[in-house]
Amino acid sequence: MFGFYLSPVVKEAKYKNQCIKNSTKGALTKFNKDDIGQPLLEETGLSIDELAKIEGYKNCIN
C-alpha cells in the first residue's frame, strides 16, 4: 500500500531529473556555441558548466 503512495513522487522525481539533465546539456551546447563572453564568466565567478547546470534547474522548476 505504501508503494502506491510513493509511486507518483518517484515518477515525478525521475522526470524532473531527466528534464534537468537534458536542459543542462542544451544550455551547455548553447553557451559553448554562442560564446557567452568573458565578462559574464568573470562577473559571476562561475564556469560555463556551472552556468549550464543553473540554467537546467531554472528550466525544470514547476
UniProtKB/TrEMBL annotation:
This is Uncharacterized protein. It comes from Prochlorococcus marinus str. MIT 9401. The lineage of its organism: Bacteria, Bacillati, Cyanobacteriota, Cyanophyceae, Synechococcales.
